[in-house]
Amino acid sequence: MKSFLLQFRAAPNLLTLLRLFIIPFLVINLLDHRNRIALLLFILAGITDALDGTLARKLGQSTRLGQYLDPIADKLMLSTLFLTVTHMGLVPRYVTVLVFARDFGILLISTLLFATNTLRDFRPSLLGKLNTILQIATVFLVLIESVYPRQPWLMIRHALLISVAWVAPLSAAQYAWIVTQRLSASPAGRTAAA
After folding, report:
1. Among the three residues 24, 51, 75, which one is the final residue of a domain in this structure?
2. Where a domain ends, among 47, 75, 103?
3. DSSP per residue over the chain, as a string?
4. Residue 81 counted as domain residue
5. If I label 27, which of 37, 79, 107, 145 is the partner at 20 to 30 A Cα–Cα?
6. Is residue 50, in this structure, part of any structural domain at all?
7. Same domain, yes or no: 150 and 98
8. Higher pLDDT, 49 or 135
9. Is 97 part of a structural domain of the chain?
10. Which of 108-122, 157-171, 173-187 shows the highest mean pLDDT?
11. What's the whole-number average pLDDT of the chain?
């Protein structure tokens, strides 16, 4: 228990916790139409995300807590922001529904596999990484557009939204296929299938 609590003191984990702490203030500023502050908070969150992985490698402070906390912080931030900007009418509802359906499905499958000790390694796929990058770019562009409204942003945002709407379900399908392949190849998967 003590070693687990000590993991919270690792610099990368403190940065991840800072990112989690930023989320409610980001949402409050967005809902209060203080878009410039919201954009700055989003950039700060992005910096903490880039730094935590770098620090973990350079300082040798990679922890089990960080392996779970970092993707949770990323998903929580993106999901919360997608809900917020959809509520504000800046992103169509169907895109947010597809994003949430993908994440909920993956979370449910991962939790079941982890809880049953069937599969414990859940590295993101290439499409999963692309999906995350597209979601970050979309939210970033929506925030930039709210601060600096320009015509070119509209076309880029539209292209990003369509990309997210396609890549989210495709990456979920790829994830399901990878899990199915790994389960059928592992002894635990063959036992579960029997």
Report:
1. 75
2. 75
3. -HHHHHHTTSHHHHHHHHHHHHHHHHHHHHHTT-HHHHHHHHHHHHHHHHHHHHHHHHTT---HHHHHHHHHHHHHHHHHHHHHHHHTTSS-HHHHHHHHHHHHHHHHHHHHHHHTTS----PPPHHHHHHHHHHHHHHHHHHHHHHS--HHHHHHHHHHHHHHHHHHHHHHHHHHHHHHHHHHHSHHHHHHH-
4. no
5. 107
6. yes
7. yes
8. 135
9. yes
10. 157-171
11. 82
Share of residues in the chain with pLDDT > 90 (%)? 41
Q: Rounded CA gap, 142 and 124, in Å?
A: 25
Inform me whether the pLDDT recorded for 5 exceeds 80: no
How do residues 87-137 score in pLDDT, each as one tens digit?
999 999 999 999 989 888 877 777 777 666 665 556 667 888 899 899 999
Dihedral of CA 51/11/111/183: which sign? positive
Contact 173, 109 (CB under 8 A): no
pTM beyond 0.85, yes or no? no
Closest CA to 99 of 170, 176, 26: 170
Q: 152 is in which domain, residue-wise? A: 90-184
